[in-house]
Amino acid sequence: MDKNKENRIYELVEDLNKYAYQYYVLDNPEISDKEYDLKYDELKRLEDETKFILPYSPTQRVGDVVLPEFKKYTHKASLWSLDKSQNVEGIREWHDRNKKAVEQYNSVHEDKLPPLRYVLTKKFDGLTINCTYDENGILVKSATRGTGVIGEDITAQAKTIRTLPLKISNKHVLEVHGEAVMTKEAFEEYNRTAQVPLKNLRNGAAGAIRNLNVLETARRKLSAYFYDVGYNEGPKFNTYIEMMKFIKDMGFPQDPYIKVCTSIEEIEEQFEYVKSIRDDLNYDIDGVVIVVDDMKTRDVLGYTIKFPKWAIVICSLLVYVFYVIRVRNIICNCNVYSK
């Protein structure tokens, strides 16, 4: 193969992935759509001519293919469910248990745990995806959560998400967890021409990811937000805030709402704030996730059979709001919004 053409392919792929990140994640495009299309067409022409296609080429985002089935994938680390609280009092009880465990540990160990600090993020109402990157930083697998141990391979479907990086600047194997969501804008655009309109955003996202027709997945124009490194062969993180910074630095889309709280009063205040902005968001959420920031404290707190003891979701008030809206929809236009 012509070495100049190979080098040009590498150059175009790097440039186009950078431009896509600027456009879809940063919302700050460096070049015009026309300039992008010209480079993309040149890349596609060279790939067709040389049959040399990089696995992280932007041309691999949308495949004109209908897959025969979903294959199983065993996650490198378990994807845990989260415990839920129906009210702030439940969060207070959870905090008291954490506080007692930290005090007990500190009373018998010289290496003291720091004061409890929590990080709050939105709980997205979409479909969890687990993305595996190899030692060269290349996306090699995406899978659904499934049982938490075994999921379904949805690599082709995940690649249609324009904000999902196909290659990152990292030299260690890792798995990054995120949530695939459908925005209100994408939902409305899809339904304008759909033969069978979607009922709601969550079903739109889940139905896209679990669709064997990859072109249909692409038509729904999903977005994604990433919030956790579940498996990591590289340097360990000391705090969740440090992990979230790493995720953002790697080019993954991340929701800007990340709040640090040190008291139940601060958590309650933030929960009320999230409730107040829920209707203004262009995607659905169904609660607020609260996690312990310090990783060593997480190790000390440990797990139950089902949940990590260092994380919890408060969701009842948001669910109540959703319920009222759905009832109104049923009464007003018989458009049942079910989940």
TrEMBL record:
Keyword Membrane found: yes
Keywords of this entry: Membrane, Transmembrane, Transmembrane helix
Transmembrane domains' residue ranges: 307-325
UniProt-recorded Gene Ontology molecular function terms: DNA ligase (NAD+) activity
InterPro entries: DNAligase_adenylation, DNAligase_N
Pfam families, per database record: DNA_ligase_aden
SUPFAM superfamilies given in the database record: DNA ligase/mRNA capping enzyme, catalytic domain (SSF56091)
Domain NAD-dependent DNA ligase N-terminal: 4-334
Record bears the keyword Membrane: yes
Protein name, as recorded: NAD-dependent DNA ligase N-terminal domain-containing protein
